[in-house]
Design brief:
alpha+beta, Jelly Rolls, six-stranded antiparallel β-sheet, 15 strands, globular
Length: 205
Protein backbone atom coordinates (compact mmCIF):
# COMPACT_ATOMS: atom_id res chain seq x y z
CA UNK A 1 0.00 0.00 0.00
CA UNK A 2 2.80 2.38 0.84
CA UNK A 3 4.44 1.80 -2.52
CA UNK A 4 1.19 2.44 -4.39
CA UNK A 5 0.56 5.71 -2.54
CA UNK A 6 4.16 6.75 -3.16
CA UNK A 7 3.77 6.02 -6.86
CA UNK A 8 0.52 7.96 -7.02
CA UNK A 9 2.18 10.89 -5.26
CA UNK A 10 5.01 10.83 -7.79
CA UNK A 11 2.55 10.83 -10.70
CA UNK A 12 0.62 13.76 -9.20
CA UNK A 13 3.87 15.66 -8.69
CA UNK A 14 4.84 15.11 -12.33
CA UNK A 15 1.43 16.33 -13.51
CA UNK A 16 1.74 19.50 -11.42
CA UNK A 17 5.29 20.11 -12.65
CA UNK A 18 4.15 19.58 -16.22
CA UNK A 19 1.34 22.12 -15.83
CA UNK A 20 3.76 24.68 -14.42
CA UNK A 21 6.24 24.06 -17.21
CA UNK A 22 3.49 24.41 -19.80
CA UNK A 23 2.42 27.72 -18.32
CA UNK A 24 5.99 29.02 -18.29
CA UNK A 25 6.47 27.89 -21.89
CA UNK A 26 3.88 30.47 -22.93
CA UNK A 27 6.16 33.25 -21.67
CA UNK A 28 9.17 34.66 -23.48
CA UNK A 29 12.17 35.67 -21.42
CA UNK A 30 13.22 39.30 -21.89
CA UNK A 31 16.58 38.98 -20.14
CA UNK A 32 19.32 36.41 -20.64
CA UNK A 33 20.83 37.13 -17.22
CA UNK A 34 24.13 38.30 -18.69
CA UNK A 35 23.63 41.09 -21.23
CA UNK A 36 21.14 43.75 -22.27
CA UNK A 37 20.58 41.99 -25.58
CA UNK A 38 17.17 43.01 -26.95
CA UNK A 39 17.07 46.21 -24.91
CA UNK A 40 17.77 49.75 -26.10
CA UNK A 41 19.02 52.46 -23.71
CA UNK A 42 17.19 55.73 -24.34
CA UNK A 43 19.16 58.79 -23.15
CA UNK A 44 20.85 56.80 -20.38
CA UNK A 45 23.97 54.84 -19.56
CA UNK A 46 22.77 53.91 -16.08
CA UNK A 47 21.38 50.44 -16.87
CA UNK A 48 23.66 47.41 -16.91
CA UNK A 49 23.51 43.64 -16.62
CA UNK A 50 25.43 42.00 -13.80
CA UNK A 51 25.12 38.93 -11.59
CA UNK A 52 21.84 37.83 -13.16
CA UNK A 53 20.02 41.16 -12.76
CA UNK A 54 19.41 44.38 -14.64
CA UNK A 55 20.67 47.19 -12.45
CA UNK A 56 19.18 50.66 -12.79
CA UNK A 57 21.99 52.63 -11.20
CA UNK A 58 20.21 55.95 -10.74
CA UNK A 59 19.95 58.71 -13.33
CA UNK A 60 17.12 59.53 -15.71
CA UNK A 61 16.17 58.09 -19.10
CA UNK A 62 14.78 54.63 -19.78
CA UNK A 63 15.65 51.18 -21.01
CA UNK A 64 13.32 50.15 -23.85
CA UNK A 65 12.68 46.60 -25.04
CA UNK A 66 13.24 46.42 -28.78
CA UNK A 67 9.78 45.50 -30.05
CA UNK A 68 6.27 46.82 -29.31
CA UNK A 69 3.47 45.02 -27.50
CA UNK A 70 -0.23 45.76 -27.19
CA UNK A 71 -1.95 42.99 -25.20
CA UNK A 72 0.38 41.16 -22.86
CA UNK A 73 1.16 39.84 -19.40
CA UNK A 74 4.51 41.04 -18.08
CA UNK A 75 6.10 39.37 -15.03
CA UNK A 76 9.24 40.45 -13.23
CA UNK A 77 10.91 40.53 -9.85
CA UNK A 78 12.38 43.77 -8.56
CA UNK A 79 13.89 45.27 -5.47
CA UNK A 80 14.67 48.81 -4.43
CA UNK A 81 18.22 49.12 -3.13
CA UNK A 82 17.58 52.34 -1.24
CA UNK A 83 14.80 53.62 0.97
CA UNK A 84 12.52 55.89 -1.03
CA UNK A 85 13.90 54.79 -4.41
CA UNK A 86 11.62 55.57 -7.35
CA UNK A 87 11.34 53.90 -10.76
CA UNK A 88 8.66 52.48 -13.02
CA UNK A 89 7.59 50.37 -15.97
CA UNK A 90 6.56 52.10 -19.20
CA UNK A 91 4.04 50.36 -21.44
CA UNK A 92 2.32 51.12 -24.74
CA UNK A 93 4.89 53.89 -25.04
CA UNK A 94 6.33 55.65 -28.06
CA UNK A 95 9.90 55.03 -29.14
CA UNK A 96 10.26 58.78 -29.41
CA UNK A 97 11.40 60.40 -26.18
CA UNK A 98 10.69 63.82 -24.76
CA UNK A 99 13.02 66.51 -26.08
CA UNK A 100 14.23 67.51 -22.63
CA UNK A 101 15.40 65.74 -19.49
CA UNK A 102 14.28 63.31 -18.11
CA UNK A 103 13.79 62.08 -21.73
CA UNK A 104 11.04 59.60 -20.92
CA UNK A 105 8.65 58.49 -23.68
CA UNK A 106 6.89 61.37 -25.38
CA UNK A 107 3.68 59.35 -25.26
CA UNK A 108 2.62 56.33 -23.24
CA UNK A 109 1.82 55.01 -19.78
CA UNK A 110 3.89 54.53 -16.66
CA UNK A 111 3.30 52.07 -13.85
CA UNK A 112 4.99 53.63 -10.85
CA UNK A 113 7.33 51.24 -9.03
CA UNK A 114 8.73 52.75 -5.87
CA UNK A 115 9.60 52.28 -2.25
CA UNK A 116 6.92 54.76 -1.28
CA UNK A 117 3.22 55.52 -0.93
CA UNK A 118 2.85 56.14 -4.69
CA UNK A 119 3.77 52.58 -5.59
CA UNK A 120 1.69 51.02 -8.40
CA UNK A 121 -0.08 54.20 -9.49
CA UNK A 122 -0.55 54.59 -13.26
CA UNK A 123 0.39 57.82 -15.03
CA UNK A 124 0.11 59.11 -18.58
CA UNK A 125 2.89 60.70 -20.63
CA UNK A 126 1.67 62.90 -23.49
CA UNK A 127 -1.81 61.48 -22.94
CA UNK A 128 -4.48 62.09 -20.27
CA UNK A 129 -3.67 60.16 -17.08
CA UNK A 130 -5.98 57.17 -16.79
CA UNK A 131 -8.31 56.90 -13.84
CA UNK A 132 -7.50 53.83 -11.75
CA UNK A 133 -8.55 52.02 -8.60
CA UNK A 134 -5.72 51.13 -6.23
CA UNK A 135 -6.24 49.06 -3.07
CA UNK A 136 -4.04 51.00 -0.67
CA UNK A 137 -4.66 48.65 2.26
CA UNK A 138 -3.74 45.58 0.21
CA UNK A 139 -0.61 47.34 -1.06
CA UNK A 140 0.39 48.18 2.50
CA UNK A 141 -0.11 44.55 3.52
CA UNK A 142 1.93 42.92 0.73
CA UNK A 143 4.61 45.50 -0.08
CA UNK A 144 8.11 44.70 1.14
CA UNK A 145 10.93 47.02 2.10
CA UNK A 146 14.24 47.98 0.44
CA UNK A 147 16.52 45.06 -0.38
CA UNK A 148 13.66 42.52 -0.56
CA UNK A 149 12.61 40.93 -3.83
CA UNK A 150 9.02 41.52 -4.93
CA UNK A 151 7.07 39.90 -7.76
CA UNK A 152 5.24 42.23 -10.13
CA UNK A 153 2.61 41.23 -12.69
CA UNK A 154 1.27 43.74 -15.21
CA UNK A 155 -1.50 42.54 -17.51
CA UNK A 156 -2.71 44.84 -20.30
CA UNK A 157 -5.56 43.90 -22.62
CA UNK A 158 -7.62 46.35 -24.64
CA UNK A 159 -8.53 49.27 -22.40
CA UNK A 160 -7.83 47.35 -19.19
CA UNK A 161 -4.62 47.14 -17.17
CA UNK A 162 -4.30 45.05 -14.00
CA UNK A 163 -1.40 45.05 -11.56
CA UNK A 164 -0.60 42.49 -8.87
CA UNK A 165 2.19 42.58 -6.30
CA UNK A 166 3.43 39.47 -4.52
CA UNK A 167 0.38 37.51 -5.61
CA UNK A 168 -2.27 40.09 -4.64
CA UNK A 169 -4.26 42.29 -7.09
CA UNK A 170 -3.65 45.95 -6.28
CA UNK A 171 -4.38 48.32 -9.19
CA UNK A 172 -6.84 48.22 -12.08
CA UNK A 173 -7.91 50.67 -14.78
CA UNK A 174 -10.33 50.52 -17.70
CA UNK A 175 -9.02 53.74 -19.25
CA UNK A 176 -6.05 52.68 -21.40
CA UNK A 177 -6.69 54.41 -24.73
CA UNK A 178 -3.38 54.17 -26.61
CA UNK A 179 -2.67 51.29 -28.98
CA UNK A 180 0.46 49.19 -29.11
CA UNK A 181 3.77 50.58 -27.91
CA UNK A 182 7.01 49.76 -26.19
CA UNK A 183 7.74 48.29 -22.77
CA UNK A 184 10.58 49.72 -20.74
CA UNK A 185 12.21 50.30 -17.36
CA UNK A 186 12.31 53.83 -16.03
CA UNK A 187 15.35 55.57 -14.62
CA UNK A 188 14.37 58.18 -12.07
CA UNK A 189 15.53 58.31 -8.47
CA UNK A 190 17.62 55.71 -6.65
CA UNK A 191 18.86 52.26 -7.56
CA UNK A 192 16.77 49.21 -8.54
CA UNK A 193 17.49 45.63 -9.57
CA UNK A 194 15.28 43.59 -11.91
CA UNK A 195 15.36 39.86 -12.67
CA UNK A 196 13.29 37.08 -14.25
CA UNK A 197 11.64 39.46 -16.72
CA UNK A 198 9.29 37.68 -19.09
CA UNK A 199 6.25 38.38 -21.21
CA UNK A 200 3.30 36.54 -22.73
CA UNK A 201 1.32 38.02 -25.61
CA UNK A 202 -2.46 37.95 -25.21
CA UNK A 203 -5.14 37.66 -27.92
CA UNK A 204 -6.53 40.83 -29.56
CA UNK A 205 -9.37 42.48 -27.68
Amino acid sequence: MTRRIGGLTAVVALIVMGADAGGDAMFTSLFDGKTLSGWVPEHTDHFLARDGVILGDGGVGWLRFGRPYKNFEFVAEYRALQKGADSGVFFRSSQEGAAQEPFWPARGYQLQVSDGDNNLMIFGHGTPPPTFDRKAEVLKEVMKGPGEWQRLVLKVAGKRAEVALNGKPVTVTEAISLGDGFLGLQGENGRFEWRDLKIKELPPQ
